[in-house]
Amino acid sequence: MKLISHALLFCVCLLACKKETNKVDNTTHQITPGSSAMNFSSVSRYAGADYSQAISIGDANQLISSYLSSINYAYNDTTLRSFTFDADTLRSYLNDTTKGKIVTLKLFMAHQPGYVATGNFGKNAGLDSRAITLVLAGLDEENKYIYNRNDEVYEHFMPCPSNCMETAVLLE
Question: What sign does the CA torsion over 17, 28, 31, 80 have?
Answer without folding.
Answer: positive
